[in-house]
Structures are given as structure tokens and as C-alpha cells.
Write a structure and sequence with these properties.
The protein is α/β, with parallel strands linked by helices.
């Protein structure tokens, strides 16, 4: 197959595309560098002189900065490349300062011009050699900006040739070899990519090959790859991902990895770019983003907020991020907090929100920057407290809490704000309409950006869900029950009216769902199914019950079964189940429930235990909590024992659709399993109960 290898069939067309899209092509061996150099010092020197007036006045000062950068690039690390990448990040973002010899104060150092792209030098180099730990390595494609390598790409032979391999082989070369053998070269890395001519995959530093994402909805042909590359690898996109879409976050559980680096998926990037354009349009002040559950809507809000706050033409705006659950607010805060972003305000009360948001004429601070809150904190604001038009409100789960008085109060408080709504389940019925609240009539389908569950499954962003009904039989002696009921009425001397009231209560749905006999039968089936199907894959289970009483009943039943199983198998430590529910919210509730009352920190600790495959906590039991915002990729099954419908049902069952790879075995989660809600029909003395499990389809 001479003449039809990876170089001339994939690599060369890609380089030609980039060379026509703002990058200047220079063959690797012709670059002005020695093979052991990470940066092209001549290009970096020119950029320092061009972009920093204090260096422009004395070009010799560039030598100090280049020496400092080279020291930081080649300094030994402790085996945590993402942490080293984060430590170098301030250089790339212009956040480092330097006190030159003879100067009295430090000045910021700019390596790139993020606003005027023409002020930068963009080079696409092919076949770049750099010494590895064992031998010299040769990178197929490197994208340099002002002499700094920001992107590394690996190309493979296209499918259909005698030596065809997928992009996955290129991802493995980068993630498993190059990043570890050539750590200095990847310390300034923004992301890497790999392609075989059918799909374009990419990932930030430290991402396992199986977790790389495909960029772009179109795939399957070289034309699709080139079209997608023209967006992902455009000079503007590379610098924008560096400036506006890079976050560093601690993982949810304790692992060998101390940090993870986050960059956007393509649907997040597209949505945020459209939001940025809408924010700059004075004639339009709303936008609806419809992204299916599990694809990172909250993270898109974080990216969008950062971009808007850094937009100079918005003249120091205020961004209000709203979630209907405090846990989501805290999660968003942490994602921003680890980047060191300034001007962050987490609201604890309605009075504090008013004090921050109201203008000075209404006794407030007219605070600029980022405000995290819930819609409930707008309670009591019956007037316009700030008329500015550079206020941007982003509402997560926009189909919830926005139709009633709180949503109206929020809009009245900031009447000229631009409203962005995020949802995976927009509602359009007689009583509620998410499109009316956030949609612009001129947007396609009244949505600024849409990403469906079908697209998510096709892209590998989420896994499909398999719904499997279960039938559980339990005995219910109707004749004996009727006789016992009449005996109770007679003993207590109940009137006919009192007997009817008691009878109506005894036949309520809640009574059925919390029947001890039924709970025992269903719990036994759950545990049996879990250990035969889910536990061998190291995944966990969520149990959604009818009410809080059922939560406790299932917890007691499942815990007893787990203890019996441990004793039978001779295990010293039994597996565990835990309840996550609100306590102390209803007058007269059982005081014994107080032991289930968790602080926010205790709840998060519990959820992190559930995410850890080495922890014995296997079952989370809930009734209304964790239905939105809860992200546990290792959740393999949901046992649903609660009637649900429409968007509430979809939101709940999609807790199982997150992608996940078993850290022990390397096996990827193939599907999420849902076992649906119970039904029961009394036949003679036997009742049959059906319910369902939710898990991703094989």
C-alpha cells in the first residue's frame, strides 16, 4: 500500500487545511529549535517584545523571561502531569508577573494576544522530534503559538488500508507514551488530538484513551474530519479553549490522580459561543439551551459565565447563576474556585442576594462579577432592584421553579437582564412552557442550541438506558385482612364514619408502597438482582422510593439482607446501604428520622463513598433527592419504585446514563439499567408487583 499511508492520506490533507486556515506550515526539522527544546525561542522572544511594552523598551529583558519559562518547563515533577500543567497555566494566561532588574514593581507578562489574533504567530509543524525517556519521539503534528507547543496531534492510517487502525491507537500513543516520556513538552499543552480519517478525537492532558471525546456531529469520512478540524484546530478556537474553557478540578474520589483537567465538549463549545454572541446582541435578551441529561449543562454554564465576565465590551457585567438545589450551586462554585477566578459571591440568604444585586438607589452594592444562588433567594423582591442591561442570568434545570411566582419575581427584580435557560427536558403544555420563558422566536425550534439524547449516545457522551420490568410476588390474604380490620374497628368502638375514614387511609397508594410484606419481597429481589448483575461490574445502585417512610423501610430491609449475605459468605464487613433524604421539613414527623439528617458536607462525603469502587457502600436510597444534578458515573442500575411521568421520570432515570470505565478492569460501562415502578393486582391471596431497573443498553 505504498503511497496510501497515514502521512499522505490523513496527515498531509490535515496540514494543508490548517495551512489555509491561519497556520503557517513549517516542517519539523526546519523549525528554529534544537530537538531538546520545548519552545521555539526566536518566536517566543519576538512575541515577548511585541506584546509587552516594558520588554519592547529593552528587548534584552526577554532573555530573563525565556530562561524562567524554560526552567519551569523542565523542572522535575512528582509524577502528576496535570498538576504541573496547572502550575504552568498562569504563564499561558498572562497571569504571571515579573520584577525585572532595576524595576521597583512587578509587571504582568503576556505570551499571547487573545483579543487580536493577528498579533500572534501560528505554526503547524509536521514530524516534530523530541527526546523521550527511552528514545527520540516524533510527533505527527504540533501546533505552536508564539513558539509554544499548545497542541499535539497523532494521525493513523485510514480504515480500509492494509494497516488500518482507529484514532484510539493514536490516543494511546499520546496518553500512554508521549505524555509520560516527554513531560516537559506537554507541560504547556492545551489539548491533544488523534484521527484516522474517519473521526477526530481529542482530550486534555491526563485523559485515559477510552475517555477521549469525538469532536463534531459529522463523522465517518475524511471530509467530516477536515470540517471538524477546521473548527477545533482553528487558531481562534485553540486560544479560546486556553482562555475561556480550561478548568482544573479534584476528582470526586481519592485516586492516584490528584487533579483532572477539563476542556469543553463540542456541544458545550457551540452553545457557549452562541451565548456569547447573544450577549453582545442588544436586540435580543434570551436564549434556551436544550442539552440532554448527563452531557454537562452545568459545566457549560461555568464556561459561559467565565467568557462573559472577561468580555470587555460588556463593561464589567454581573452574571447570576441559578440552580434549584444548593448542592449544584456548591459544585459550580468549586469548579470555578479551583481556577483561582476572582469576584465570586455565594449567596446564603434572600437579604444577602438583595444587598449584592440591588443598585445603590435601592440600597444595594450593585455587585459586579459572579453570583451563585437559588431562585428561592429572590423571594420577597417585589420591585425592580437593578435596571442594568449587562446583567446575565443563567438558570439550570430551567423547566423547574420558573413558571410560578419565584420565576416572575426574579424577572421583575432585574427587568433588563438577559435570561439563559438550560434544560434537558423542556416543557410545552397547557400550563407550563419553557420555550415561552427562555426561547427566542427567531431561534430554530425556539432553542439557541440543542443536543439530543440520540446525539449523546452516538457520540459516546452518554450510554443508552435499558428498561427491564420485574415481577415480584408476595402473599396478601385479603380475607384475613378484612376480618382483622373489622375486629380492630369493633375493639376500638369506631363509628361507621370513622371506619370509612380509616378504610380510605388503609387503601392509599402510600400504604401499598410501604407495606412491610411488599418491601421485604421487593428488597430481596433487588439485592438478588444486584449481586448477580451489577456488583460483578463494580457498579452501584440507586433505589428511588415512594416517600420518606419507604426510604427507611427499604434501608432497614436491604441492610438486613446485606448483613445476612455477609454472614453467609463469611465476610467480616458487610456491604452497606444509605439513605439520602430531607429531614425536619414536616411538622410531626418521626423524631427517630433525625439520624438520617445529614449536613451538606456529610452528604457529599456519603456520595463520594458511593462513587468509590473500593467502598462497601453499594446502595443509595432516596425519594426526591439526587433526581437532578447528582453525577455518579459508576451508578449501574436504578431501582424505581415510585410513580413518575414526563420530564421528572426522564430526569430521574438518566442518572444511570453517564459513561464510566472500571478502574480495576478497564471495562467500559455499556449501558444504564432501569427497573421501573411497581404495579400490583390482588388475586386470591397473592399479589404480583412489577417494577423496573434502569441501566445502559448492551
Amino acid at each position: 500500500m505504498t503511497g496510501f499511508g497515514e502521512r499522505n492520506s490523513v496527515q498531509e490533507p490535515l496540514v494543508r487545511l490548517l495551512a489555509s486556515s491561519g497556520w503557517r506550515n513549517v516542517y519539523g526539522d526546519a523549525l528554529d529549535r534544537e530537538i531538546e527544546d520545548v519552545v521555539i525561542e526566536s518566536d517566543l522572544r519576538d512575541a515577548l517584545i511585541r506584546l509587552n511594552p516594558v520588554i519592547g523598551q529593552d528587548p534584552a529583558r526577554a532573555t530573563e523571561i525565556i530562561a524562567a519559562i524554560n526552567r519551569d518547563l523542565t523542572a522535575p515533577d512528582d509524577g502528576t502531569p496535570v498538576a504541573a500543567n496547572q502550575e504552568f497555566y498562569p504563564w499561558l494566561r498572562g497571569l504571571r508577573t515579573w520584577k525585572f532588574t532595576g524595576m521597583t514593581k512587578s509587571v504582568p507578562i503576556r505570551l499571547f494576544d487573545f483579543e487580536n489574533l493577528a498579533a500572534n504567530r501560528f505554526i503547524v509543524a509536521d514530524e516534530v522530534t523530541y527526546p523521550g525517556a527511552r528514545r527520540n519521539r516524533r510527533f505527527d503534528i504540533v501546533l505552536y503559538v508564539n513558539g509554544i507547543p499548545l497542541v499535539v496531534g497523532e494521525t493513523k492510517s485510514p480504515v480500509g488500508t492494509a494497516r488500518s487502525v482507529s484514532w484510539f491507537k493514536g490516543a494511546k500513543d499520546i496518553a500512554n507514551t508521549y505524555e509520560f516520556e516527554c513531560p516537559a513538552f506537554f507541560r504547556p499543552n492545551v489539548f491533544s488530538f488523534a484521527t484516522e480519517g474517519k473521526e477526530l478525537a481529542y482530550a486534555p492532558l491526563g485523559t485515559r484513551p477510552e475517555k477521549w471525546q469525538v469532536w463534531g456531529a459529522d463523522k465517518g469520512r475524511l471530509d467530516d474530519v477536515l470540517r471538524n478540524a477546521s473548527q477545533l484546530l482553528a487558531p481562534a478556537t485553540v486560544l479560546s479553549i486556553l482562555a475561556d474553557y480550561t478548568l482544573y478540578q479534584k476528582p470526586d474520589t481519592e485516586t492516584r490522580i490528584d487533579k483532572i483537567k477539563i476542556i469543553p465538549r463540542y456541544m458545550q463549545f457551540e452553545a457557549v459561543q452562541l451565548m456569547h454572541q447573544r450577549a453582545l446582541d442588544p436586540g435580543r435578551n434570551r436564549g434556551l439551551i436544550v442539552h440532554t441529561q448527563g452531557t454537562g449543562k452545568t459545566l457549560a454554564m461555568v464556561f459561559a459565565a467565565g467568557m462573559l465576565l472577561r468580555e470587555r465590551t460588556l463593561q464589567n457585567p454581573t452574571v447570576v447563576m441559578i440552580a434549584d438545589r444548593l448542592q449544584l450551586v456548591r459544585q459550580m462554585w468549586e469548579q470555578f474556585h479551583v481556577t483561582g477566578a476572582p469576584r465570586l459571591h455565594v449567596v446564603e440568604s434572600a437579604s444577602q442576594l438583595r444587598a449584592l444585586l440591588a443598585d445603590q438607589a435601592h440600597g444595594g452594592a450593585d455587585k459586579r462579577g459572579l453570583i451563585f444562588t437559588t431562585v428561592h433567594k429572590f423571594s420577597g423582591m417585589g420591585e425592580a432592584i437593578n435596571q442594568r442591561d449587562n446583567i446575565f442570568v443563567m438558570v439550570d434545570e430551567a423547566h423547574r421553579t420558573q413558571e410560578g411566582s419565584l420565576g416572575q419575581t426574579m424577572r421583575a427584580a432585574v427587568p433588563n437582564a438577559t435570561m439563559f435557560g438550560f434544560t434537558g427536558t423542556p416543557i410545552a403544555d397547557r400550563d407550563r412552557n419553557t420555550f415561552d420563558l427562555f426561547g427566542d422566536d427567531d431561534d430554530p425550534g425556539r432553542a439557541l442550541h440543542t443536543y439530543t439524547s440520540e446525539q449523546g449516545v452516538a457520540d459516546g457522551v452518554v450510554v443508552p438506558i435499558h428498561v427491564a420490568p420485574r415481577l415480584v410476588e408476595f402473599h396478601l390474604d385479603k380475607k384475613m385482612l378484612d376480618e382483622s380490620f373489622q375486629e380492630l374497628a369493633s375493639t376500638e368502638g369506631l363509628t361507621e364514619e370513622e371506619t370509612e375514614v380509616l378504610s380510605s387511609k388503609a387503601t392509599r397508594v402510600a400504604t401499598f408502597f410501604t407495606s412491610p410484606q411488599r418491601v421485604e419481597a421487593v428488597a430481596a429481589d433487588m439485592v438478588d438482582h444486584f449481586y448477580s448483575t451489577i456488583d460483578p461490574l463494580d457498579m452501584g445502585a440507586q433505589v428511588v422510593t415512594y416517600n420518606r417512610e419507604a426510604c427507611i423501610a427499604y434501608h432497614e430491609a436491604i441492610t438486613r439482607l446485606l448483613n445476612e449475605r455477609a454472614a453467609r459468605l463469611g465476610q467480616d464487613t458487610p456491604d452497606e446501604a444509605a439513605v439520602v433524604m430531607s429531614v425536619g421539613t414536616v411538622k410531626g414527623e418521626d423524631p427517630a428520622w433525625s439520624k438520617y439528617d445529614l449536613t451538606e458536607i456529610q452528604e457529599e462525603t456519603l456520595l463520594n463513598r458511593f462513587r468509590d469502587v473500593d467502598d462497601p457502600l453499594k446502595f443509595l436510597i432516596v425519594t426526591s433527592k439526587l433526581g437532578t444534578g447528582f453525577n455518579a458515573p459508576n451508578e449501574g442500575v436504578m431501582y424505581l419504585d415510585k410513580p413518575m411521568k414526563l420530564h421528572t421520570l426522564f430526569q430521574t432515570i438518566t442518572r444511570t446514563n453517564r459513561t464510566w470505565t472500571n478502574p480495576r478492569t478497564g471495562q467500559a460501562k455499556r449501558y444504564g439499567l432501569k427497573r421501573p415502578g411497581f404495579r400490583s393486582v390482588v388475586r386470591r391471596s397473592r399479589a404480583r408487583s412489577s417494577w423496573c431497573e434502569c441501566r445502559p443498553l448492551r
